[in-house]
Amino acid sequence: MTGDATWRADPELDADSADLLDALLPILCAPAGCVIGQLGQSLDGRIATRTGHSHYINGIAARTHLHRLRALADAVVVGAGTVAADDPALTVRHVPGPHPLRVVIDPKGRLAEHHRLFTDGEARTLHLVAPGALPDGGAAHRHAAHLQREELAVAPDGALARAVIVRLREAGFRRVLIEGGSTTLSHFLAADGLDRLHLLVAPLLIGSGKTGLNLPPIDTLGDARRPTCRRFSLGADTLFDLALRGER
After folding, report:
1. Cα–Cα distance between 12 and 238 in angstroms, integer?
2. Largest Cα–Cα separation, the chain
3. For a tag on the chain, would you pick the N or C end, based on fewer CB atoms within 10 A?
4. Residue 164 and residue 140 in contact, taking contact as beta carbons nearer than 8 Å
């Protein structure tokens, strides 16, 4: 494979398998690794209703794609807000493959110990907190063999995003999935911390509620980001594969 476009398979693949490889090979073949963001939303850019209801905006094909990304990733990153609201498992269930390292960014140390990432033991978990955020030093979690807590100096959001990537890369985690929530993903995007973004758009209009991406304001469309974009069908949903390095 060369770049994003040129590859061949022997024997010849069916169209669906070829599309799947088209979408995933840039992640697999990036020589320096890849930091990829993932977001599922409605046509009007909403990820939940005004009450927070979001299950499920995207269909099963799109949710299966998310699990493929987890299986390909060495580490999957979420913010404390996502853990508090959804109590996710962040494991691979819809496809075969290994579970990634689960990384929780929790600068204020506000998450309670009952969340499944801290208790289920299904995959290694790294809990990143600011120095001094936990008065007890995290003693409540020390019994969990799968769980590691680490202090990471926090700074403005962009610096924190870059620090998380550096920390994971230094530990050998080359393929990193930034899964959510919208605030965490927006911080990584604003900090130029993503190589690619997989935006999964469902054919529905919610009309109000929480938006997905929230970036610093711009004054003219000349300042808008214009990444290279490829489109794939995932059931009723559309996958927009955005290449963010070298965008104009």
Report:
1. 25
2. 59
3. C
4. no
Domains parsed from the chain with CATH numbers: 34-216+225-243 (3.40.430.10)
> C-alpha dihedral over 107, 108, 112, 115, to 10 degrees?
-20
SS3 24: helix
Q: Which of 156, 172, 152 is nearest to 164 (CA)?
A: 152
Amino acid letter, residue 173: F
Cis peptide bond N-terminal to 56, omega within 30: yes
Nearest of 31, 88, 29 to residue 54 by alpha carbon? 88
- Give the DSSP H/E element, type plus range, for residue 26: helix 15-28
- Spell out the residues 6+ positions from residue 112 whose beta carbon is closer than 8 angstroms to its own: none
What interhelical angle do 15-28 and 60-72 show, nearest 10?
40
- What are 121's two structure tokens? 């033991």
Q: Could you report the per-residue pLDDT of 150-174, keeping only the tens digit for each?
A: 988 766 556 889 999 999 999 999 9
The tokens describing 76, both together, are: 């999957």
39 DSSP assignment: E
Q: What is the DSSP letter of 6?
A: B
**Which tens digits make up the pLDDT trace of 186-195?**
999 999 999 9
Token pair 């409540």 is at which residue? Answer: 140
Paired tokens of 165: 């990537």
* Residue 169: strand, helix, or coil: helix
- Between CA 12 and CA 189 the distance in angstroms is 36
